[in-house]
Amino acid sequence: MVMVRLESISKSFAGKDGPVSALDRIDLSIAKGEIFGIIGSSGAGKSTLVRLINLLERPTGGEVFVAGERVTDARGERLRELRRSIGMVFQHFNLLSARTVARNVAYPLELTGRYGKDEITEKVARLLARVGLSEHAHKYPRELSGGQKQRVGIARALACEPQVLLCDEATSALDPQTTGAVLDLLRQINRDLGVTIVLITHEMDVIRRTCDRVAVIDRGRVVEQGPVTDVFLHPRHPATLRLVREAEPDGGSLEAISASELGSSTVRLTFTGPNAHRPILGRIARENVVDYAILAGRVGHIREAPYAQFIVSLSGRDIAGAIAGLRASGVDVELQGGPQTEQTAVTSPRVGERALHVV
Amino acid sequence: MSFENIYWGDIAAALGQTLAMVGGALLLTIVVGLPLGILLFLTGRQQLFQAPVAYGSLSFVLNIIRSVPFIILLIVLMPVTVLVTGTSLGIRGVIFPLVVGTSPFFARLVETALREVDRGIIEASLAMGASTSQTILRAVLPEALPSLFAAVTVTAIVLVDYTAMSGAIGGGGLGDLAIRYGYHRFQTEIMLVCVAILIVFVQLIQAGGNRLVTHFSCR
Ligand SMILES: Nc1ncnc2c1ncn2[C@@H]1O[C@H](COP(=O)(O)OP(=O)(O)OP(=O)(O)O)[C@@H](O)[C@H]1O
Ligand SMILES: [Mg+2]
Fold first, then answer.
1. What whole-number percentage of chain A has pLDDT above 90?
2. Which ligand is nearest to the CA of A217?
3. Which of A38, A46, A169 to mutate to test the pocket of ligand 1 (most atoms within 8 A of CB)?
4. B118 touches A at CB < 8 Å
5. Per 3-state DSSP, what percentage of chain A is helix, strand, and coil (rounded to 5)?
6. I want to staple A289 with a disulfide (CB 3.0 to 4.6 A). Which of A124, A317, B119, B190 is the partner?
7. CB-based neighbours (< 5 A) of ligand 2, an ion
8. Mean pLDDT of A93-103
9. Where does residue B28 fall: left (phi above 0), alpha (psi -120 to 50 degrees), or beta otherwise?
């Protein structure tokens, strides 16, 4: 079932000399219960896109559907009801500094006017327990660390039992360790409550660790989308390549090497799932009497699933047989080199270019 | 100079009048100025009910009142004051012009205080399904409380100043006493006592205001 659907959404803002387009005919479908990532570099239009889902921003064209219902021009009580069914988590937390942790979480419940005092107290206690903040209920936001503040933000966003949780750079103000903990919490919430999560980020690592599917947006357009494994291991669009490279420890030698032609015996091998742990390459090489040199590679996990990806130069007797053998074992083999591949267009990362995307 | 022929009874009465004028006018200034300030805030650029014409007109009127020196405002307003309160004399006659004089000032301070509230908080409130009035009453005003108390403090001190002036044209209070005895009858010591009391009064207002501001600052 589709939870959120954007249909040919455009958004432009009034600028000094005429309207400035921020989003251009975006089509997206987000399934119920998935964690959907939206990634793009700064200014790509991610925040604008996510704010269109709960209509903090009105589209200049196109339609928004939530849970099968067209909500594009919802107003008044209908709009407020819609927003209650969509929680939102912010980069800078946006907590009420004049309220304690518990009263921050109570805020959305108070707004509805539907709950009695005791009911609110009880709900708040349960929410705080879920995010592991029970001991801090009576502290003020200024007394909390960034990670704790974001947990309050998450508890608050869950208060009205939303179907969708929008997270706009929810971890961008946090250190790596806290980021990991907050992402784990989001995944746990997704698993336990079945809440659909839309996660905005400019870091591929966040997507890799958390999301089921991802859309890459660049200058207001969706340039690539699909399961994270596909997009992360087989990036096609230059914007995606750039984001993947940023997530690589050495700046993405893998993509860089594939750019420089290495001859027709160079292949990119992708092992996913259990294959990532099996001794396939050595066996196939022996069986077909070929030698191989690993030119570049990366190994890691996409969510829990391991992957390994190598650029390998093959030489010896039966290269074609080796490739067929690898494919038969479930390894994804892409022939590298030759002017027809899209990687030819990709040059190695330039310092200036990369600096632009470090936000 | 001798402090023997000081009429302490008169001074006590004048202090009572000053307190009544400042207190009454402050209360009414808040009642009038707070909504005006909220209106300025809401209709301002990039705000919830952005309305350039409404904002511009209100802003223009408030600025006109603010640019008229208070002593002149007092005189100009006299007929209106009589119409509204029945007299232009005494505490009753003075509170009306005082409120007219300070409300625009207070409204501006309120506007500034509300604008200082992080936009993210307003956005979060709306995203949680709050209406505009809920957002103002439950999020923006509480967040701005320290600045609002600071605004009330400054306004109270301005009111002390204005009451002294209005005293000169028949309002009573410490300022009036100081001018009547100190200026017209050359009894400098009475003027000195009045001024000393006003100094203490202003200090107390400031100290009280500061305490409130600190108490409500949760950042
Ligand atoms: N209220 C606004 N008025 C005018 N232009 C805007 C407004 N909001 C966003 N824009 C423009 O729309 C484009 C997309 O902005 P947006 O905030 O969605 O980007 P983003 O991908 O979230 O970037 P970042 O990673 O920096 O948060 C930018 O060019 C921005 O200048
Ligand atoms: Mg953004």
1. 74
2. 1
3. A46
4. yes
5. 40, 30, 30
6. A317
7. A 47
8. 96
9. alpha
Residues linked to residue A218 through DSSP beta bridges, in sequence order: A221
Other CB atoms within a 10 A radius of the CB of residue B49 amount to: 12
CB pairs under 8 A between A and B: 67
CA dist., res. A49 & res. A24, Å (int): 10
Distance CA A266, CA A271 (A): 16
Q: Do A96 and B219 touch (CB under 8 A)?
A: no
A40 lines ligand 1 (CB under 6 A): yes
Which DSSP helix (H) or strand (E) runs through B55? helix B52-67
Q: Which residues, including other chains, have CB under 8 Å from residue A47's CB and lie 6 or more apart?
A: A168, A169, A200
Q: Does domain A2-246 have CATH number 3.40.50.300?
A: yes
Q: What are the structure tokens assigned to A48, written together? A: 């604008």
Q: Is pLDDT above 70 for A251?
A: no
Range(s) of chain A covered by CATH 3.30.70.260:
260-355
Query: Which tokens belong to B211?
Result: 């305490």
Interface contact flag, A80 B130, Cβ < 8 Å: yes
pLDDT (tens digit per residue) in A29-46:
999 999 999 999 999 999
With CA atoms as reference, the chain B residue closest to A100 would be: B218
Task: Report chain A residues whose CB lies below 8 A from the CB of B125.
Answer: 107
Which residue reads 């029970």 in tokens? A134
Query: Tokens in use for A226?
Result: 């699909």
CA distance A354 to chain B (A): 29
Fold exhibited by the domain A260-355:
Alpha-Beta Plaits (3.30.70)
In angstroms and rounded to an integer, the radius of gyration of the C-alpha atoms of chain B is 20
- What integer is the mean pLDDT of A224-233? 94
Tokens of B122: 């307003």
Q: How many helices (H) and strands (E) does chain B have?
A: 9, 0
Question: What CA–CA distance (Å, rounded) separates A16 from A347?
Answer: 36
Nearest CA to A206 among A187, A221, A189? A187
For residue B41 the two structure tokens come to: 């805030």
B143 neighbourhood in chain A, CB within 8 Å: 96-98
Q: Return the closest-CA partner of residue A3 out of A35, A28, A30, A36.
A: A30
Q: What is the CATH number for B31? A: 1.10.3720.10
In a domain, residue B12? The reply is: yes
Ligand located closest to A168 CA: 2
Per-residue model confidence as pLDDT tens digits over B111-164: 999 999 999 999 999 999 999 999 999 999 999 999 999 999 999 999 999 988
- Shortest CB distance from A111 goes to which of B121, B130, B143? B130
Cα-flanking dihedrals φ and ψ of residue A97, to 5°?
A: -70, -20
Structural domains of chain B, count: 1
